[in-house]
Amino acid sequence: MFRHVADFKTIWQLETKHTLGLLDAIPDASAGQAISAEHRDLRRIAWHLVESCVEMPGKMGMKIAGFSGEPYKTQPPATMKEIRDTYAAVSTSVADEVMKLNDMALAMTYPFYGMTWTGAFALFVLVTHQSHHRGQMTVLMRQAGLKVPGTYGPAKEEWVAWGMAMPAV
């Protein structure tokens, strides 16, 4: 949980870097990869990350720049580059807007999805929500035959570059 807004910014910048790396690794030709027709594909999950960067802080009164439309009602752009660039803009705006808060705002409560959350918990959920969907995306990327960039350690293809032997499967 965050006690200081500066702590959020530090974590958010790292998480944003990981998300941008993942988005950069998805070519348009693979963006339609989904488990089935009833589930989100890579493009839609990536766009969901953009939308949640606007919608969740908005519940705390923040105005996030870089997104035109209404979250969860705006269709994803045609290309992964457009999604990536929009994500870069909104994630930067999230960091800027949170830094306008004072630490006391983290203890304030806000209505979220029929519940009451503290600002600290809402920002924690924003970070973990993003990590959750990045995990989903890495599985879909593997199914599409794409190389997955490492985040908190090396991905399968990166062990040698890290000077380590790839672990046995």
Structural commentary:
By secondary structure, the protein is mainly alpha-helical. It has a single domain, classed as Four Helix Bundle (Hemerythrin (Met), subunit A), CATH 1.20.120. The chain is 49% helix and 5% strand. The chain is built from four helices and two strands. The chain has a two-stranded antiparallel ribbon. Strand 1 and strand 2 (115-118) form a beta hairpin. Helix 1 runs antiparallel to helix 3 (80-99) and helix 1 (5-24) packs parallel to helix 4 (119-143). The chain is globular and about 45 Å long. The relative contact order is 0.19. The model has no long low-confidence stretch (mean pLDDT 95).
Percent range for β-strand residues: under 5%
Shape: globular
* Widest β-sheet, arrangement of strands: 1-2
Domain count: the total is 1
Cα gyration radius (Å): 17 Å
What is the fourth-level CATH superfamily? dinb family like domain
Going by CATH, the architecture would be: Up-down Bundle
How is the secondary structure organized here?
Layout: H1 5-24, H2 42-58, H3 80-99, E1 109-112, E2 115-118, H4 119-143
Antiparallel strand pairs: 1-2
Helix pairs in contact: 1-3, 1-4, 2-3, 2-4
Structure summarized in a few sentences:
By secondary structure, this protein is mainly alpha-helical.
Question: What descriptors fit this protein?
Answer:
169 residues; mainly alpha; Four Helix Bundle (Hemerythrin (Met), subunit A); 4 helices; 2 strands; 5% strand; globular
